[in-house]
Design goal:
It is built from 20 helices and 19 strands. With 557 residues, it is an alpha/beta fold. It has a 17-stranded parallel β-sheet, with no helix packed on it. Strands 16-18 form a two-stranded parallel sheet.
């Protein structure tokens, strides 16, 4: 969340005030009073550039009258630019992005002085600034000056109840608003109607994000009533509001009017089996839906057993997230009939559903009918050999696969050879995660041979952590070949938290390989202990090569 603050120093040059004004207002149309002042200044410059008798005369009092106002305007703008430079930002016209700038109360006040000079502002982002909370009224009081605003992002600003009330009134002044993000502000909960009650039928809102806002069941019911008034809504994120599950009947009813919706996120919203039935009835009205996130709703398990039919109507669905939903064997059986029909599906996450291990053989086998799949996450599903075999055979038919994560499935250990053909054919694979898979030396040797043969050439992230059964000889073979992964940026071979081991001589092979990996930045080696000789070699490496490479190891003896 934190970002490195940039410090930009002034160039020290004194610029003409009029050219500075033009620079600051790149393309902006000033209000009439300011335009008149600039016109007067331009008239003065035009007069100065034309030879006449008047050019030889000293300026009279009347001629000089507008100059103090112009100087005052230029001075104010220079202070504004210094303020933005202090925060590592550039002069603005349509976008003022102060996200995570550690704004102080004084900074917020200074930011407010910018708004009168930004009549064309379309995006204002002051998210992740704690001191905005309690001072938002100073911003909302100036909202009428930025009537063209289209995007307002206030996530994690510690908004108070007074801030929330003030915001509700201020939104009247920005009728063109298309994006509103109030996520991670707990005082929005219980007050949502006060914030959004001024949205009129036909509102232009495209994106509404209310993640972790402590929304109440009443807030959820209000969302359901509001949805028919938002005919342009494309993104609705209500994630991590555990109390709205009880009002999902109202939300689902409202979704029937949200025909333009493309993204629906209901992660950790207290959904139940009944919730799935309510949503299923709304799915046939959501023909534009691209992303559906129902993850981390542990009471949802069993809900798909009788009501998955309408999911198949989501013909444009590209992302389906059902991780940690306590899917039952009956759910898996029903989804086996539905998921293969989602021909546009690109990302599928079924992680942390333990019953997948013994009941998903048919489902995983039918993934072969999803040729557009680019990301497949099946972490911690207790896969058995039969289900893993079905997955391995299906994955051969997924030529677009870029991300494959099988971590925390112990059956992979000793059976990685089942994925051999997939690893050879996956020319697009960027991410491979095999953490805590009980891999053995033969598995990592097989992986090394695949790499040596020129496969996996586009791999960028490789996670082999928590596989403590691999001996030093296995790591040596792997490290001797890893240099062929020339696009690799991250490698993790950390040990389990309960295990500490001395690095073998294979570490020298790893150091040698790293010198030939131009993109590598992170090497995870937690709990590997470096003996003094190898620690010295690592220090020499840092002296002689790029210091940007981070070795996260367990220290030295």
């Amino acid at each position: 969340m934190s970002e490195t603050r940039k410090e930009n120093s002034s160039d020290g040059e004194t610029k003409p005030q009029t050219s500075f004004v033009n620079k600051f207002f790149r393309g902006s149309k000033l209000r009439s009073s300011k335009a008149e002042r600039i016109k007067e200044s331009n008239d003065l410059r035009t007069t100065d550039s034309q030879p006449s008798d008047e050019t030889q005369k000293p300026a009279t009092l009347d001629t000089a009258k507008p100059l103090p106002s112009e100087m005052e305007l230029g001075c104010r703008m220079e202070k504004n630019e210094q303020f933005l430079q202090k925060l590592g930002k550039n002069t603005v016209d349509k976008c003022l992005d102060l996200n995570n700038c550690r704004l102080t109360t004084a900074d917020v006040r200074e930011m407010v002085t910018l708004l009168p000079f930004l009549p064309d502002l379309e995006k204002l982002d002051i998210s992740w600034n704690d001191f905005v909370g309690g001072t938002l009224h100073s911003v909302t009081e100036q909202m009428h000056l930025v009537g063209k605003l289209k995007s307002l992002r206030l996530s994690s600003c510690r908004l108070t109840a007074d801030d929330v009330h003030a915001l509700g009134e201020a939104l009247k002044a920005v009728p063109d608003l298309e994006e509103l993000n109030l996520s991670w502000n707990s005082n929005v909960g219980g007050n949502l109607r006060l914030v959004l009650q001024n949205f009129q039928a036909g509102s232009k809102i495209h994106v509404l994000e209310l993640v972790d806002c402590a929304l109440t069941s009443e807030d959820g019911a209000f969302v359901g009533q509001l949805l028919p008034m938002l005919p342009s809504l494309e993104v609705l994120d209500l994630s991590i509001n555990r109390n709205i599950g009880g009002s999902l009947d109202s939300i689902a009813q409202g979704l029937k009017s949200a025909s333009t919706l493309k993204v629906l996120k209901l992660q950790s919203c207290g959904l139940s089996q009944e919730s799935v039935k309510l949503l299923d009835a709304a799915f046939r009205y959501l023909g534009e839906l691209r992303k559906l996130d129902l993850s981390c709703n542990k009471e949802l398990g069993g809900g798909f057993e009788d009501s998955p039919a309408q999911v198949a109507t989501l013909g444009r669905l590209a992302v389906l997230d059902l991780r940690q939903c306590s899917l039952t064997a009956g759910d898996v059986t029903s989804l086996t009939q539905v998921i293969p029909l989602l021909s546009s599906l690109q990302e599928l996450d079924l992680s942390a559903n333990k019953t997948m291990g013994s009941s998903s053989e048919n489902l995983l086998s039918r993934l072969r009918f999803l040729p557009a799949l680019t990301s497949l996450l099946i972490n911690s599903c207790a896969l058995e050999r039969e289900t893993f075999t079905a997955l391995a055979e299906a994955s051969i038919h997924l030529p677009a696969l870029e991300v494959l994560s099988l971590s925390w499935n112990k059956c992979v250990g000793g059976n990685l050879k089942l994925l051999l053909e997939t690893l050879k054919l996956s020319t697009s694979l960027h991410v491979l995660r095999l953490s805590s898979c009980s891999l053995v030396t033969e598995d990592v040797a097989l992986l090394a041979s695949v790499i040596h043969a020129g496969h996996l050439a586009r791999l960028q992230k490789l996670d082999l952590s928590y596989n403590d059964s691999i001996c030093d000889a296995g790591w040596a073979i792997f490290c001797q070949n890893v240099w062929l992964l020339t696009e690799l940026t991250e490698l993790d071979i950390s040990l389990r938290p309960s295990t500490f081991r001395d690095c073998g001589q294979w570490f020298r092979h790893l150091l040698c390989a790293v010198t030939r990996l131009p993109e590598i930045t992170e090497i995870g080696m937690k709990r590997w202990i470096l003996p003094p000789s190898l620690e010295e070699e690592l220090q020499c490496f840092h002296r002689d090569h790029r210091s940007s490479i981070h070795f996260d190891h367990g220290g030295c003896q």
